[in-house]
Amino acid sequence: MIISSHQIQTVLRLYGAQKSQPTEDQHTDKAEQKDLQQGDRADLSQEALDIQKLREVVLKTPEVREERVREIKEALEKGEYHVSADQVAEKMLGRFLVDHLL
Fold it and tell me: What's the CA gap between 10 and 12, in Å, rounded?
């Protein structure tokens, strides 16, 4: 699945707008909020717990795969790393289409 930068920007814009608008729940007074905080409780489903665990794993995963970067660097130094122009063009066009169609 390809996620375009346009899609990311749209989600961020919507999330930011939603976050900045106060809800009815946020209009309760401080005494009510204190009472709610003391008595609030949430029971998560097994699916929600699994998603929470997966999220933690994803957040701990480095953005850059150091091993893969090292492999490519070594291949470049040896002159063994080759990417076809067709592959580069295909990725560029695919990204362009996703960004402009969505």
Answer: 5
